[in-house]
From TrEMBL, chain A:
The keyword Protein transport applies. It comes from the Eukaryota. This is Adaptor related protein complex 1 subunit gamma 2. InterPro entries: Adaptor_Complx_Large_Subunit, ARM-like, ARM-type_fold, Clathrin/coatomer_adapt-like_N. One of its GO terms (biological process) is vesicle-mediated transport. It is a peripheral membrane protein. It is found in: Cytoplasmic vesicle membrane; Endomembrane system; Golgi apparatus.
TrEMBL record, chain B:
This is Adaptor related protein complex 3 subunit sigma 1. InterPro entries: AP_complex_ssu, AP_mu_sigma_su, APS3, Clathrin_sm-chain_CS, Longin-like_dom_sf. It comes from the Eukaryota. Coiled coil: none annotated. Transmembrane segments: none annotated. One of its GO terms (cellular component) is AP-3 adaptor complex. The lineage of its organism: Eukaryota, Metazoa, Chordata, Craniata, Vertebrata.
Length: 594, 193
């Protein structure tokens, strides 16, 4: 391949490579040739070489040796070389490279070039990768260009100014007067740039808000012209005249009108007009949403109704839910009327829509609708994608805690979540649940029966297993008594209970924490049951030589309890009133003196 | 603000990658791979908006994409941009490419990456939307191309024309062109005084 072959030829050769290794070889040879060419400072074909290098860079191969070449090409006098040089600068250089400072002077010269195309290249590069120092040096130039007579340059200078303001907010004052005057332009591109500049200035510095509120009448006038103007083919998108510009202006009006009655009043008529033109869905799509966003302070109910109809269309359901999320904090009741549709969106196939629907549903839960919402949310939990599970579970717990209509319902809900998604709940769920159960003293019988049933059917969900073991240990006597008011009790013998706990101890699915819970539960049962104390004694002594250190320590302590401190056993193993995870053991430590 | 604009095909090969924030080369390639991974899993009839991956912008980041035949056009934006507006913008971009390349297809994008960059530079600058009027964009791009061509001289001409001129064997061309004996009747003009 001859060195000055053009870009297309190289691409053809690269595409001809049949394996990844072959491609790499081709590219390495090509890069070596390009590097040699750069060193020679050969003037013919330089732009071709840089173009080839940029292509190689896009494919992911290192191209940093082209940085100095970019600087050289930018300084050239030929337009074609400048063009590829600036493109290279945007792709290869950034603020951290020293080479970027070297192009500051070239950019400065090019900003005063006679050809508008060269000026635009410089502006574009400055806006894309200008560092703070470059921006500071060149800000006066940009300010001068904002007043240029050429609208093509003006619009680019406006966006460049936005970049400068982002990098160095203090320089915003320099651009404020020019920004005002740009609003009187006719060219849509310039207006667009001006509105973005003013939005950025207002967001950075609240003082600017006061200044730009004076421009509200002008902005309203521009909007009116756009809304009522006849068909203009160049700016028309789906029947709306320049929706991009309209959306930008509406957003700016929203910022200016926030918390300010005078400005909001000036906008009132306009926004009503805009809202009425946005009624038909088929014309334009982004436009109605932003009109809705802006006027939400004034027309909440209408707007929310409109959003409701949008919810039914798949493209819009995502966006409408995003908008509703923003409103729901301030105006809860208005969004409630769409609860049905939102809950249906939970069943949608689209994962993004499901996520939005989940957040919105959690925000809409209230004391009035807790039972029905919880049913839907629990149904969702069983079918939801794994990445949303833990979010859904914690949301459900929060909602249950705030609005639970009864303790029994609360416990049932938490148990249901543990059965469905026990692996995705947070760690503090277990002690929280234990605390809850202890507090609900009249439900002990019911709870222990339910948990026992869950335990014997499945021991995969560790949080459930832990809570069940603890409960059986504490209230085992209620379980064995075999009578319960709230639920038809199973007839359980002591052997059954001990079998269940031993299964947990021995199963390879149990984590060490669960085993600890099970062992403590077995020990506690020694004071609740009468016939199988020997069985318990033997189990405990077996675990005295277990590999797991934690388990071994417990077993040894319990063994000691049996042997030397049998009289203390009843005391230490009685009902827990202190809600610590290892409440019994701390009492034990007190007794044994360590 | 638009963080990045990516075009890749159905197999994940990048056809255009423009980043408006700085990332290292490795991160850029990772972003392209991750984006492809997220976008290719999407079904045809779900909405065009995705919560983005963690690499580019974190939680404030959205991916807005459109799938045309063999190409995915993906714009990574943050929350300050209107999602539906960006969808419209992608449409305008593709229509502009169609006008500039005459029935654009993937091969055009492969072999003329620099031209696509130039067109994109007229639409999006520094992560912000610059111009959405298709005619205006095309006018500017044409003017720039003309400027380039005028500088290039003979080297800018198509390759076949150049080789034809080079192969033209001037010495061999006949010096005396004999067109045979044609009797041309010359009218009898009066003498001018």
């Amino acid at each position: 391949m001859s060195p000055s072959v053009c870009l297309q030829e190289m691409i053809r050769v690269i595409r001809g490579a049949r394996t990844q290794g072959e491609e790499r070889g081709v590219i390495q040879r090509e890069c070596a040739a390009i590097r040699a060419q750069f060193r020679q400072a050969d003037s013919g074909g330089r732009s071709h070489n840089l173009a080839k290098l940029l292509y190689v860079h896009m494919l992911g191969y290192p191209a940093h040796f082209g940085q100095m070449e970019c600087v050289r090409l930018i300084a050239s006098s030929k337009y074609s070389e400048k063009r590829i040089g600036y493109l290279g600068a945007m792709m290869l250089l950034d603020e951290k490279q020293d080479a970027s400072l070297l192009i500051t002077n070239s950019i400065k010269n090019d900003l005063s070039h006679s050809s508008q195309h060269v000026q635009s290249l410089a502006l574009c590069t400055l806006a894309c990768m200008g560092s703070a120092e470059m921006c500071r040096d060149l800000a006066p130039e940009i300010e001068r260009l904002l007043k240029a007579s050429n609208s093509y340059i003006k619009k680019k200078a406006a966006l460049c100014a936005v970049h400068i303001v982002r990098k160095i907010p203090e320089l915003g004052e320099m651009f404020t007067p020019s920004a005002h005057s740009l609003l009187s332009e006719k060219n849509h591109g310039v207006l667009h740039g001006a509105v973005i500049l003013i939005t950025e200035l207002c967001e950075r510095n609240p003082d600017n808000l006061k200044q730009f509120r004076k421009s509200v009448p002008e902005l309203v006038q521009i909007m009116k012209n756009l809304v009522t103007s006849g068909y203009s083919p160049e700016h028309n998108v789906a029947g709306i005249s320049d929706p991009f510009l309209q959306v930008r202006i509406l957003r700016l009006l929203r910022i200016l009108g926030r918390n300010n009655d005078a400005a909001s009043d000036a906008m009132n008529d306009l926004l009503a007009q805009v809202y009425s033109t946005s009624k038909s869905i088929t014309t334009g799509i982004s436009f109605p949403f932003h009109s809705i966003h802006s006027i939400y302070g004034l027309y909440t109910l209408y707007m929310v109704k409109r959003i409701g109809t949008f919810l039914l269309i798949i493209e819009f359901s995502y966006i409408s839910m995003t908008s509703l999320q923003k409103i729901v904090q301030t105006d809860h009741t208005a969004v409630q009327r769409h609860r049905g549709t939102i809950v249906d969106c939970l069943k949608d196939q689209d994962a993004s829509v499901k996520r939005r629907a989940l957040e919105l549903s959690l925000a809409l839960v209230s004391a009035a609708n807790i039972r029905s919402m919880m049913k839907e949310l629990l149904l969702f939990l069983s079918t939801c994608p794994p990445e949303l599970r833990s979010h859904a579970a914690s949301g459900i717990f929060n909602a249950a805690e705030r609005y639970a209509p009864s303790q029994r319902w609360h416990i049932d809900t938490i148990l249901h979540v543990l059965v469905t998604a026990g692996g995705d709940v947070r760690d503090e769920t277990v002690p929280n649940l234990i605390q809850l159960i202890t507090a609900a003293s009249e439900l002990h019988c019911y709870t222990v029966h339910k948990l026992y049933r869950a335990l014997i059917s499945d021991i995969v969900q560790q949080s459930l297993v832990q809570v069940a073991c603890w409960c059986i240990g504490e209230y085992g006597d209620l379980l064995l008594k075999g009578e319960c008011e709230e639920i038809t009790p199973m007839q359980v013998t002591e052997d059954d209970v001990l079998d269940a706990l031993e299964t947990v101890l021995q199963s390879h699915m149990s984590t060490p924490t669960s085993r600890g819970f099970a062992l403590t539960a077995i020990m506690k049962l020694s004071t609740r049951i009468t016939n199988n104390v020997d069985r318990i004694r033997s189990v405990v002594s077996i675990y005295g030589s277990c590999i797991d250190v934690e388990l071994q320590q417990r077993a040894v302590e319990y063994n000691a309890l049996f042997k030397k401190y049998d009289h203390m056993r009843y005391f230490t193993m009685s009902y827990c009133t202190v809600i610590l995870e290892f409440g019994c053991r701390s009492r034990l430590s007190l007794v044994l003196g360590y | 603000m638009i963080k990045a604009i990516l075009i890749f095909n159905n197999h994940g090969k990048p056809r255009l990658s423009k980043f408006y924030e700085h990332y290292t080369e490795d991160t850029e390639q990772q972003i392209i791979r991750e984006t492809f991974h997220l976008v290719s899993k999407r079904d045809e009839n779900v909405c065009n908006f995705l919560e983005g991956g963690m690499l580019i912008g974190g939680s404030d980041n959205k991916l807005i994409y459109r799938h045309y035949a063999t190409l995915y056009f993906v714009f990574c934006v943050d929350s300050s941009e209107s999602e539906l507006g960006i969808l419209d913008l992608i449409q305008v971009f593709v229509e502009t490419l169609d006008k500039c390349f005459e029935n654009v297809c993937e091969l055009d994008l492969i072999f003329h990456v620099d031209k696509v960059h130039n067109i994109l530079a007229e639409m999006v600058m520094g992560g912000m939307v610059l111009e959405t009027n298709m005619n205006e964009i095309i006018t500017q791009v044409d003017a720039q191309n003309k400027m380039e061509k005028s500088e290039a001289g003979i080297a800018g001409a198509p390759a076949r024309a150049v080789s034809a001129v080079k192969n033209m064997n001037l010495p061999e061309m006949p010096k005396n062109i004999n067109i045979g004996d044609i009797s041309i009747k010359v009218p009898n003009l009066p003498s001018f005084k």
